[in-house]
């Protein structure tokens, strides 16, 4: 993710996550008119990435017997299926992500010439994602990004994968709704406590 921000952040503003895009729009830090286009691009990118992963593992699909292992290459799944607990976990993880992103991007923290704005911002966001994964990855696989889960899950559904099983669409709403709630809540919290 950090590498993607370094490579494409100047074009996209570092928006690779619909939850972040919606959160920024909710507090006026992103143009509402651009939200749909960005989310479409994020979904297309996630789907394309999943297709590339499918191609990279092409000879392995037939050799892997477990359908759950195949699905796990594409999208998240809970360790213990409890919709309310799974939803709360995704809300917490995305809240931490968006609050961290907003804190890093606080104008007072972006001192020109310090190297922070030019280089450390994306690296720190990458560390936040890593920390969320280490601390909250176990319960749900920490989607914290609707596109990261939905795009690859759709690819899993459409791609010809030998013995793949179902795509677990009954769970798919959690890594979409949880991150959106967590992201918007973090943005509103940020706006309330760190006024512009």
Tell me about this structure:
This protein starts with a helix and ends with a helix. The protein has helices at 2-12, 18-26, 35-56, 60-63, 67-74, 83-104, 116-140, 146-158, 174-193. The protein is mainly alpha-helical. The model has no long low-confidence stretch (mean pLDDT 90). Helix 1 crosses helix 7, helix 2 (18-26) packs antiparallel against helix 3 and helix 2 runs parallel beside helix 9 (174-193).
By DSSP, the count of extended strands is: 0
CATH A-level architecture? Up-down Bundle
Q: Residue-averaged pLDDT, rounded?
A: 90
Low-confidence stretches are none
Stated plainly, the CATH topology is called Glycerol uptake facilitator protein
Helix content: 55-70%
Strand content: under 5%
Radius of gyration: 17 Å
Q: Please state the structural category.
A: mainly alpha
Based on Cα principal axes, name the global outline: globular
C-alpha end-to-end distance: 27 Å
Domain count: the total is: 1
Give the CATH class: Mainly Alpha
The CATH superfamily title = Glycerol uptake facilitator protein
> What is the chain-wise order of helices and strands?
HHHHHHHHH
How many helical stretches?
A: 9
Major sheet attributes = none
